[in-house]
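Title: Prediction job returns without error message
Component: structure pipeline
Severity: low
Priority: P3
Assignee: unassigned

Description:
Job completed but the reporter wants confirmation the result is attached to the right record. Sequence as submitted:
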Amino acid sequence: MPARIAAGIGAVAVVLGLCFLYLVQSVTLRDLTARVAAADAALVDVEEVNRTLEFRIEQAFSLDRISRIARERLGMVEPTVVHYVSLDDADD
């Protein structure tokens, strides 16, 4: 009889251990799923910031903007007449 009780207790211990492992795995899986969802949301935010920064960089280095700044801030003007100077080959 004591062997049967010990075997029963052992079987109950195994079943409880398996239940505990199942619960731990379930909790871990939910935690990891939540972390993945949070990481995905953060990735979307970072990608949006990246697109915004790329757009600002493109605007900052556009030729129209640089030309406008050169005219407005630096007083530069487009050349209207181009003078060429010819150099004669002189035999010295």
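Comment from assignee: result matches the submitted record. Residues 2-60 form the longest helix (59 residues).
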